[in-house]
Specification:
By secondary structure, the protein is mainly beta. The chain folds into 2 domains: 102 residues, Phage tail protein beta-alpha-beta fold (3-Layer(bab) Sandwich), CATH 3.55.50; 700 residues, TonB-dependent receptor, beta-barrel domain (Maltoporin, Chain A). Helix content is 9%, strand content 54%. It contains 9 helices and 54 strands. The protein starts with a helix and ends with a strand.
């Protein structure tokens, strides 16, 4: 208090001889309840005088335009006045006459409070992670954690304008009061904007600042995207995201030029190994069980984890709190079912449960288009047969006589959430997916002059089982601290079996074809298992924390311990026997420091640390990200991000090329942690993104990235194809069959999306260019070669149109140019090494980068119509995959044909399916 203010206060005190007395002394003993919410102080004082009858005098110039938030229950007038003045710069004295006199309070240190709370989906009550919270008056903000919670502290007490934004939701604006102390976190509910494709995809740069308030009409959703299996596939819905490429015939995805094993697929935070079904033809998850897919690309933060390319986070959906529902769906391949349950328990606890499942009925009905595709692909490769039979079949011609396929798969999803109060939430998630695919082929040699067997029988079988379970508890520990604790288990079991037999092995071959097939099948049964097996169980315990150091400065940190128990064995007759396995411990932690450098600029710097006892070493992965947002520019809203970092991978995926002459799946997959004999793979990332939104319905995105891997692990086919020295000779240490190579990838792309509100139509056009190269010792003369999965040029377009009422249509176009590795992988990985064969007539397999496939073009059409039937709802959806019936080339085969002058080698193209229609029906109860 200044000397002048002290003197004024003293003179007032002496002049009025005022002393603070109780209401009983003045006769004011009646109690009252008064509530004021954001009202002017002058109005509050007038209501106080009118209600209580007290005498109150003040200088109106003291009041200014202060607003009052005050709750007084059953209190004396003097206490109510104290409550009204609590958050102001005013005080009072009680004169001996019983009159209250308002004065300017003595200067006191500034009081600080905090702003904490959670953000939820308005419809389902589901917490939204990654929502942006901005306090305009404080020029600061933050984002929600995985439980949808946030904290900003310390803040000067008073009122603030808060804006909350989240991709796919309408922005929310509100006025909040930050008191000195509070135990009640705020809750905000966001309303989802209309979408055409579910689940919601969160990718690329996300704006931090508010810049629009769209008002759109509701439109129907098209759940998932179609695949060649003729069924909707939720994971393929990310195909339109820049930087994402799928293998054309399979559901294997590649993130920004990386290998299929360079990214993780997490379901509710737990990695799912081999997240594909139907022999890798479609995704592993029921599209009706998922809520959101988040994609973390080049430059992702330390909190997300360690992986060479990125992270795909898949989140299971939860029940709507307002009602219990049942959903049924069926198409020619499989059926989906989902049950939602929500209830209010005792003491304010709420329970939400979602159970979903998917299964097929191949044994009762075989979808003709898929059955025909498998039959077309299940053919003996002439060149591989020639090699396996030691060139005896040069003059032979095998023709398929009998084909059979067996497909069985199911997915089970469950997610439960218990919300005890605004501070504590627990969730339990379960998932299991089982897959089985087997094909049988009997072929006949029509060339009677050759010395090869008359009949060849092959069997190719794939089986895997994925199971995960996770429990997580989220706790808002204080106004500054968020905490999350979780325990999870992920289990993967897989096996592949390929076997072949021929009629020369039969003692007394029958002349009946069915009998020959039975005899050869029995012969294969007696051969025992040959192929590969993989077992991996990952148990994880994790604790994460977010602490608000200041209004523009927060820190996140966490600890994780992981136990990985694994085993892998390779007993394929074409490869060197291999077996490896043990239990490995992995300890890791991270710290992220987030700072708002200004209202428009946000910086995140972090590091991840991992310790592996087998290596006796700590591996550091520093990360850095800078984002700038600027609304209201001449171009509209502009947001830019640049990020960089070091990334490692501790559990690695490998694909063993299928050498079997009739193998359906091109490779067999297994996972092993890097043991002490190999180095830990490492990558350097740099990524940049730019978003420009001239209007609320027009968005232009551009991104670019570069990744360099000085240490990339790959299979050593020279070792795997070597002949064992004895029956006990097999590989154990990974250095015996794994080598270290190098790779780099870079790319760029742009995306334009426009929503035409009057037509309720959304249009999108995107182009991306990617170059991915790698160099492996002892392969292709040590040169950098194009990666087999790379799609150099990709053009995509789509139009989603809500035509009228419940009728919605989606049209999608995709074109790809420049695909290399045109021949079967077995030619490059087996023939060039095992047989040292590199040339077949005029065709060579020494430089796969130069073997270019024809351009790929595909047009898909989906039509969905839904209507209500009383308390029920029905929706019918028709999909036309490859509407124009393009016979796109998947790969090429080399076919030897005898001629009078020797052997001539011709090319046969293996094509993808043509037009694939599908019809599905959904019922909602």
């Amino acid at each position: 208090m200044t000397p002048g203010k002290r003197l004024t206060f003293l003179l007032l005190f002496l002049a009025f001889a005022a002393t603070k007395i109780t209401a009983q002394d003045t006769g004011q003993t009646k109690r009252h309840t008064m509530i004021f919410r954001d009202v002017p102080i002058e109005q509050a004082l007038k209501e106080l005088v009118e209600t209580t009858g007290i005498d109150l005098i003040y200088n109106p110039g003291l009041l200014n335009d202060q607003q009052i938030f005050s709750i007084s229950k059953d209190q004396l007038p003097e206490d109510i006045l104290s409550d009204i003045l609590q958050e102001t710069n005013l005080d009072y004295i009680l004169l001996s006459s019983g009159t209250f006199l308002l004065i300017k309070s003595p200067s006191t240190p500034s009081e600080f409070g905090s702003f904490a709370g959670a953000v939820y989906d308005k419809s389902t009550g589901e917490p939204l992670d990654g929502a942006n919270i901005l306090l305009a008056d404080a020029s600061t903000g933050t984002s929600t954690n995985g439980a949808g919670r946030f904290t900003i502290a310390p803040l000067l007490t008073g009122k603030y304008e808060v804006t909350i934004t989240y991709v796919g939701y309408k922005a929310v604006r509100d006025t909040i009061l930050v008191p000195a102390q509070t135990d009640s976190p705020s809750r905000f509910y966001l309303e989802a904007r209309p979408v055409f494709v579910e689940p919601l995809i969160v990718s690329s740069i996300q704006p931090r600042l508010p810049y629009y308030s769209p008002e759109g009409e509701e439109v129907n959703n098209l759940t998932g995207w179609g695949s060649y299996s003729g069924s909707t596939d939720a994971i393929r819905s990310i195909n339109a995201v820049m930087g994402i490429n799928f293998s054309l015939s399979l559901a294997d995805l590649h993130l920004q030029g990386g290998a299929a094993g360079d990214h993780q697929v997490l379901l509710d935070g737990v990695q799912v190994y081999n997240p594909v079904s139907l022999g890798r033809l479609t995704g592993a998850f029921s599209p009706y069980a998922l809520e959101k897919i988040t994609i973390h690309k080049a430059g992702f933060g330390a909190e997300e984890g360690s992986q060479l390319s990125g992270i795909i986070e898949v989140k299971q959906d939860l029940a709507d709190h307002t009602e219990n529902t049942v959903t049924l769906q069926a198409d020619p391949l499989n059926a989906n079912a989902r049950v939602d349950f929500a209830a209010d328990l005792s003491d304010g606890t709420t329970l939400k449960t979602m159970i979903a499942g998917r299964g097929n009925f191949w044994r009762w009905y075989q979808k003709p288009s898929l059955s025909g595709t498998l039959e077309q692909w299940d053919r003996l490769d002439p060149l591989l047969i020639e090699t396996l039979l030691e060139n005896r079949s040069v003059a032979s011609s095998f023709r398929p006589l009998f084909h059979d396929s067996d497909i069985r798969f199911y997915d089970f999803h469950m997610r439960n959430q218990l919300q005890f109060n605004a501070f504590h939430t627990s969730s339990l998630s379960l998932y299991q997916g089982k897959n089985y695919l087997q094909t049988q082929l009997l072929s006949h040699n029509d060339n009677t002059e050759s010395d090869v067997p008359d009949f060849m029988y092959t069997r190719d079988g794939y089986h895997w089982l994925n199971t995960i379970g996770t429990f997580q508890h989220d706790w808002l520990a204080s106004s500054r601290l968020n905490a999350s604790f979780s325990a999870s288990v992920s289990s993967h079991r897989s096996s592949h079996h390929f076997a072949m037999a021929n009629s020369d092995q039969l003692v007394a071959p029958s002349g009946d074809i069915n009998r020959v097939r039975e005899q050869l099948g029995n012969l294969v049964d007696r051969q025992g298992h040959s192929g590969d097996r993989n077992r991996l169980t990952e148990t994880t315990f994790e604790a994460n924390f977010d602490y608000s150091l200041h209004t523009d400065h927060s820190v996140g940190f966490g600890l994780e311990s992981k136990i990985v128990d694994y085993a892998f064995s390779l007993s394929d007759p074409f490869y060197h026997p291999t077996s490896t396995g043990k239990t490995q411990l992995i300890f890791s932690g991270f710290i992220d420091d987030e700072m708002a450098l200004s209202y428009n600029t946000n910086l995140v710097a972090g590091t991840r640390f991992t310790y592996i006892p087998d290596h006796q070493k700590i591996f550091a992965e520093p990360r850095l990200s800078l984002q700038y947002d600027k609304p209201g520019t001449p171009l509209g809203y502009i947001s830019g991000n640049i990020s960089t970092g070091i990334y490692r991978q501790f559990v690695n995926q490998f694909d063993v090329t299928s050498v079997g002459p009739s193998a359906i799946v091109p490779s067999n997959r297994f996972w092993v942690p890097a043991d002490y004999t190999t180095d830990i793979p490492k990558a350097y990332h740099m990524g940049a993104e730019l978003l420009v939104e001239p209007t609320e319905h027009l968005a232009l995105r551009w991104e670019t990235f570069y990744k360099w891997q000085p240490n990339m692990l790959a299979l050593n086919y020279h070792a795997l194809l070597s002949t064992p020295e004895s029956t006990t000779d097999h590989f154990e240490d990974q250095i015996n069959f794994i080598v270290s190579g190098k790779s780099y990838t870079y790319g760029t792309g742009f995306n334009i999306s426009q929503f035409i509100e009057s037509w309720k139509m959304e249009a999108m056009l995107s182009y991306q260019y990617t170059l991915a190269r790698r160099k492996i010792p002892n392969r292709f003369d040590g040169r950098f070669m194009e990666s087999p999965w790379n799609n150099p040029h990709k053009l995509m377009g789509s139009v989603n149109w809500n035509i009228a009422g419940g009728l919605t249509t989606t049209l999608r176009w995709k074109s790809i140019w420049g695909r290399s590795w045109a021949f079967k992988r077995a030619y490059y990985d087996y023939l060039t090494i095992h047989q040292n064969q590199t040339g077949f007539g005029s065709h060579s397999v020494t430089s796969p980068s130069d073997d270019i496939l024809p351009p790929y073009h595909q047009l898909d059409l989906s039509i969905s119509y839904g209507r209500g039937l009383g308390d029920r709802r029905i929706r019918v959806r028709a999909d036309f995959i490859n509407l124009l019936d393009h016979h796109n080339t998947l790969e090429k085969q080399i076919v030897p044909q005898p001629t009078s002058g020797g052997t001539e080698y011709k090319i046969r193209e293996r094509t993808l399916p043509g037009l694939t229609p599908s019809l599905s029906i959904e019922l909602f109860f």
